[in-house]
Write a structure and sequence with these properties.
Elements lengths: L9 E2 L6 E3 L10 H13 L4 E4 L5 E6 L4 H8 L11 E6 L13 H12 L8 E6 L13 E6 L2 E5 L13 E4 L1 H18 L6 H8 L1 H8 L2
Parallel strand pairs: 5-6, 6-7
Antiparallel strand pairs: 1-2, 2-4, 3-4, 7-8, 8-9
Helix pairs in contact: 3-4
This protein binds iron/sulfur cluster.
Length: 217
């Protein structure tokens, strides 16, 4: 059975069982989501539940014939995990709760999530949003990232199997400008990257100055 047929399930190292990842935008969960996951894990005897680096909860080690039943039982939205598209936005708590926060990373993260998650792209992509230059949202090593400073957002970022530290492409910009820059960047990437070319390789190939020229005009 293909991963597509298995609704985005990820074949594991044993080449038999699968992992699935419910969508939990920005890593925010509710008691109901956690109860759904816990109930399904008990019912289907799922051996591993793992918090991922992308602030998602992976259920690992599911037999192929049980994948659909687990999804149905949890009744949670499917998180994209294998397709070439925008997989998720991760965000730190920012001004919502963190005393160091200088910008509302959860607010901007929610906007970026709504705008870009699921967008079809040449390769997998992820966004990181941090509320201050300490970058707990891993903004510098995501395909697109931004972090807050007193006067606005600093925008850059890049990632992949061969990550490169992100280049700063704009400073002191507003929420609206971050969303607009992300749209221009991903449109440019979509139009110019080779199939399966991750953003880090893509930017290395075309050159950061070309990227800046295309999206800062
Ligand atoms: S990046 Fe800054 S605002 Fe966000 S959690 Fe870390 S210290 Fe707090």
């Amino acid at each position: 059975m293909s991963e597509q047929e298995l609704n985005g399930a990820i074949l594991q190292r044993d080449k038999r069982t699968y992992a699935i990842v419910p969508r939990t935008p920005l890593g925010l969960v509710t008691p109901e989501i956690l109860e759904s996951i816990a109930r399904a894990a008990r019912k289907f005897d799922i051996p591993i539940i793992k918090i991922t680096s992308g602030q998602r909860i992976a259920l690992v080690g599911i037999e192929p014939d049980k994948v659909a039943d687990v999804w149905q039982d949890m009744a949670l939205e499917v998180g994209r995990a294998v397709e070439p598209c925008m997989h998720y936005v991760q965000a730190c708590p920012g001004t919502e709760v963190c005393k160091f926060g200088q910008q509302d990373s959860l607010g901007l993260g929610a906007r970026l999530d709504k705008e870009f998650v699921g967008m079809e792209l040449p390769g997998k992509a992820k966004i990181g949003v941090s509320g201050c230059p300490m970058n707990c949202g891993e903004s510098y090593v995501r395909d697109f990232g931004c972090f807050g400073k007193k006067n606005g957002w600093t925008v850059g970022g890049n990632a992949g199997a061969k990550p490169r530290i992100g280049d700063v492409i704009a400073e002191d910009v507003s929420d609206d400008e971050v969303v607009a820059l992300a749209a221009k960047y991903f449109d440019y990437y979509k139009a110019n990257a080779k199939p399966k070319e991750r953003t880090s390789k893509f930017v290395n190939r075309v050159g950061i100055e070309e990227v800046k020229k295309a999206i800062l005009c």
